[in-house]
Automatic annotation (TrEMBL):
Name listed for the protein in its UniProt record: Glutamate-1-semialdehyde 2,1-aminomutase
GO-annotated biological processes: protoporphyrinogen IX biosynthetic process
Assembly mode: Homodimer.
Pfam families: Aminotran_3
Catalytic activity: (S)-4-amino-5-oxopentanoate = 5-aminolevulinate
Lineage: Bacteria, Bacillati, Bacillota, Negativicutes, Acetonemataceae
Matches recorded under PROSITE patterns: AA_TRANSFER_CLASS_3
Sample GO molecular function, one term: pyridoxal phosphate binding
CDD domains, sorted: OAT_like
Cited HAMAP family: HemL_aminotrans_3 (MF_00375)
UniProt entry tagged with the keyword Cytoplasm: yes
Modified residues (N6-(pyridoxal phosphate)lysine): 277
Organism: Anaerosporomusa subterranea
Amino acid sequence: MNTAAEQTVSAKLNKSANAFAEAKCYIPGGVNSPVRSFRGVGGTPPFIARAAGNRLFDIDGNEYIDYVLSWGPMILGHSHPEVNRALLAAVERGVSYGAPTLLETELAKLVNRLVPSMELVRMVNSGTEATMSALRLARAYTKRNKIVKFVGCYHGHHDSLLVKAGSGVATFGLPDSPGVPDSIASTTITVAFNHFEQLQEVFARQGEDIAAVIIEPVPGNMGMVLPQPGYLQQVRELTARYGALLIFDEVMSGFRVALGGAQALFNIQPDLTCLGKVIGGGLPVGAYGGRREIMEQISPAGPVYQAGTLSGNPLAMTAGITTLRIIAEDPDFYPTLANKTESLTTGIRDQAEKAGFNLQCHHLGAMFGLFFSDQPVIDYDSAKLSDSTAFNIFFHSMLEQGIYLAPSQFEAGFMSAAHSEADIQQTIAASAKAFAKLADMRC
Ligand SMILES: Cc1ncc(COP(=O)(O)O)c(C=O)c1O
Ligand SMILES: NCC(=O)CCC(=O)O
């Protein structure tokens, strides 16, 4: 699909291409999550053999500076020695018990300390489970059925929220997924992010029926988009006025835009919060939590059922505890990450400008987004206006030069503690070459 850049990459990915072909014989599309397939940008995804620090190593012997970081979790970098040591020791004690452990309380306490709005915390195995369970709880607590979500926000792949979703759904240009019953989709109302008047209108018409508004406070699944000043506060006030719960989906922004997540940064207290990614330190963990009185509705404290054979798994808790302790201990951890992210995005934007391209660069904490657009990007409609062909060519040129970005314009990028100044300069230099290639192709 893509050009010379892609063919050069493919030549370096012979083993991966064969592995991908074989995987497709046994796994739908050859992947266990669609966003890994490179369907949006074309070409062969490198099959990864191992990872260390900020590097990925594929089975063809190529090495990449990684800005995907397993889609966000690896904030300390891959194979962090302290996390690995803790995990190896945990393996020796047995990998799962299906019975209470001290580790679960320890992680819940840590989360409560870092995100105080989460007075009670329930561990699950993924971000999807966290948002799915939070919606059920919100519906039960308010005795209302309708949910409001924002176009281009992604909250996982369960029925209620697979409506006008971002991430892979946006990348592949899918309308709402087949298999989601109309009866469920029709309980989900969608409005544009950053357009408070739309939310106001919805509440004016149906406010008494709305159980919850679920929002990515800093969306990262339509590319990375920033909330307009005061917007999240307005959403908070409106939901409170109508007795609807405000659910912050901080699966991506949690422990990433700041230690306490977007809610700490913008000083907003949601009723419920969903976490995932960083909280598991690379193992499968999600969590939801919030006001005690609401969370006490969850079984067995209350009647709302939610369960999990592997929930609170000792390995996952160990990786999460070790990661959160490390990031919480060092007061310079987030300022350093934020500076690195800013210097990366500023450097890339400067190179784009030199080559005559308009690039919208967003960053907050250790999260960033790049749009090939001369318009401000504030919502899904403006994100869609960006030039995806230019992005695809840029993406493949960067990959060829050993820089691993998310394979879609509708995804965010991530910085880790393991990225050095030299890596950032190498990435900026690679971007200069990628823009030069794009400029050549334009002529
Ligand atoms: C904001 C947000 N919520 C929920 C999810 C779903 O998490 P998971 O993929 O762990 O199910 C994701 C990522 O996939 C996400 O970015
Ligand atoms: N931004 C989208 C994700 O993080 C999802 C990853 C996946 O579904 O594999």
